[in-house]
C-alpha cells in the first residue's frame, strides 16, 4: 500500500502570502506581472480592471512569494459588483504575511489615505512608490518620503518602476526579509492557483478595456461556456456578456472588426501562456442588469 506523506525535505525558508494593495490605477497589476515574470493579472490604462483576487507564485531557490492582487479600492459607485470588490480587499488583508502598499511616487491623496486606513497594525507593510520613471523632480521626493515615513512604522520604503522593472529586485529582497521562515507553501512549479479557464476569461476582459471606449468595459463581463483540452489543443468558447442590446454592435464593430481584434489578441496571449494551439470562438450576448444581481455574480465566479 502506498501512502502520501508531506515532503519535509524542503528546509525552512522565507515563504508566505504577499498582498499588493493600493487605490485603482497605481500599477498593482503591472507590478505583480513584473514580480512573477508572467502575464497573469490583467492590466490596462483604465481604473478598476481587477475584479478578482489573483494569485501568482514566484519560487526562487531560497524563498517563495505568493502574491495576491487585490481589487482596486472603489468608493465612487455602489453597485453589487463594487460591494463585492471592497469585501475582497478586506478579506485579502486578513490572510497575508506581508503587505505592499502601492502608491504613485510624489502623489498621496484621499483615495490612498482610505486604503492605508484599512491596513492592519500587526502586519509588516512595505511602502512602494511606483512610477518613479515619471518623476521629473527627484529632489522633491525627500520631503515627500519624510512626510509618509511619519504615517506608520513601515517595514521598508522602496521606490520602483513596475513598468521599467527598476528596483523590483530591491523590493523582492525587502519582502523576503519580512516573510516568515517556513517551508514552501506550493510546489515550486506552481504559477497560479487559477484555472486556465479563469485566465482565459481575464485575457478577454483585458482586451475589452484596451480596445473599447471608456464606459463600455465596465458594463461587460466574460463567460467561458466551454473549455476543451485535447492534447496540446485547447478549444475555448466564450461569450462577452453586456447589459443592453445597444452595447452589442459597439463590441462587434463595423464588419465584426472589433470583436475579431479582441479575439485575435486574446488568443495570442493564451497561446503564449498555455503553449500549444488555441482555438477561440467568441461572441456577444445580452443579460440585462448583470452587475446588479448578486446571485448572477456568483454564477459568473465573482464570489
Ligand atoms: N509610467 C509608468 N506607468 C506605470 C507603471 N506601472 C504601471 N503603470 C501604468 O499605470 C496604469 C495602471 O496600471 P495597472 O497595473 O492596471 O494598475 P492597478 O493598480 O492594477 O489598477 P486597478 O486594476 O484599477 O486596481 C497602466 O497604464 C500602466 O501601464 C510605472 O512604473 N511607470
Structural class: alpha/beta
Major sheet: size, sense and barrel closure? 7 strands, mixed
Mean pLDDT: 80
CATH topology of the largest domain: Rossmann fold
Write down the CATH class of the largest domain: Alpha Beta
Bound molecules: guanosine-5'-triphosphate
Total domain modules: 2
CATH 4th-level superfamily of the largest domain: P-loop containing nucleotide triphosphate hydrolases
- Architecture (CATH level 2) name of the largest domain: 3-Layer(aba) Sandwich
Low-confidence stretches: 1-8, 42-54, 71-78
Order of helices and strands: EHEEHEHEHEHEHEEHHEH
Strand elements, count: 10
Distance between the termini: 40 Å
Written overview of the protein:
- With 303 residues, this protein is α/β, with parallel strands linked by helices.
- It has two domains: 13-182, P-loop containing nucleotide triphosphate hydrolases (Rossmann fold); 196-299, 2-Layer Sandwich (GMP Synthetase, Chain A, domain 3).
- It contains nine helices and ten strands.
- Strands 1, 2, 3, 4, 5, 6 and 7 form a seven-stranded mixed β-sheet that branches. Strands 8-9-10 form a three-stranded mixed β-sheet.
- Helix 4 links the parallel strand 5 and strand 6 (156-159).
- Helix 6 runs antiparallel to helix 8 (257-274).
- The longest helix has 18 residues, at 257-274.
- The chain is globular and about 55 Å long.
- Bound molecules: guanosine-5'-triphosphate.
- Residues 22, 24-30, 43-45, 47-50, 72, 130-131, 133-134, 161-163 line the site of guanosine-5'-triphosphate.
Amino acid at each position: 500500500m502506498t501512502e502520501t506523506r508531506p515532503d519535509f525535505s524542503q528546509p525552512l525558508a522565507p515563504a508566505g502570502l504577499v498582498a499588493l494593495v493600493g487605490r485603482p490605477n497605481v500599477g498593482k497589476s503591472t507590478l505583480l506581472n513584473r514580480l512573477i515574470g508572467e502575464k497573469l493579472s490583467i492590466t490596462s490604462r483604465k481604473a478598476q480592471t481587477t475584479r478578482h483576487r489573483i494569485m501568482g507564485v514566484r519560487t526562487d531557490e531560497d524563498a517563495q512569494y505568493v502574491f495576491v492582487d487585490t481589487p482596486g479600492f472603489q468608493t465612487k459607485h455602489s453597485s453589487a459588483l463594487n460591494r463585492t470588490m471592497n469585501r475582497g480587499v478586506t478579506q485579502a488583508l486578513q490572510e497575508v504575511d506581508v503587505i505592499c502598499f502601492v502608491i504613485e511616487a510624489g502623489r498621496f491623496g484621499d483615495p490612498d489615505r482610505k486604503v492605508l486606513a484599512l491596513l492592519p497594525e500587526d502586519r509588516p507593510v512595505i511602502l512602494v512608490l511606483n512610477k518613479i520613471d515619471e518623476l521629473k523632480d527627484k529632489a522633491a521626493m525627500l520631503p515627500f518620503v519624510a512626510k509618509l515615513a511619519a504615517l506608520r512604522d513601515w517595514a521598508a520604503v522602496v521606490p520602483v518602476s513596475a513598468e521599467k522593472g527598476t528596483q523590483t529586485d530591491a523590493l523582492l529582497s525587502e519582502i523576503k526579509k519580512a516573510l516568515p521562515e517556513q517551508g514552501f507553501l506550493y510546489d515550486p512549479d506552481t504559477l497560479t492557483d487559477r484555472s486556465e479557464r479563469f485566465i482565459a476569461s481575464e485575457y478577454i476582459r483585458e482586451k475589452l478595456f484596451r480596445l473599447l471606449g471608456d464606459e463600455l468595459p465596465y458594463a461587460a463581463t466574460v463567460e467561458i461556456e466551454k473549455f476543451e483540452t485535447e492534447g496540446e489543443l485547447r478549444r475555448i468558447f466564450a461569450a462577452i456578456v453586456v447589459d443592453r442590446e445597444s452595447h452589442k454592435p459597439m463590441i462587434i464593430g463595423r464588419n465584426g472588426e472589433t470583436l475579431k481584434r479582441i479575439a485575435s489578441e486574446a488568443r495570442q496571449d493564451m497561446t503564449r501562456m498555455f503553449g500549444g494551439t488555441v482555438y477561440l470562438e467568441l461572441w456577444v450576448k445580452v443579460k440585462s442588469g448583470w452587475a446588479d444581481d448578486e446571485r448572477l455574480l456568483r454564477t459568473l465566479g465573482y464570489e
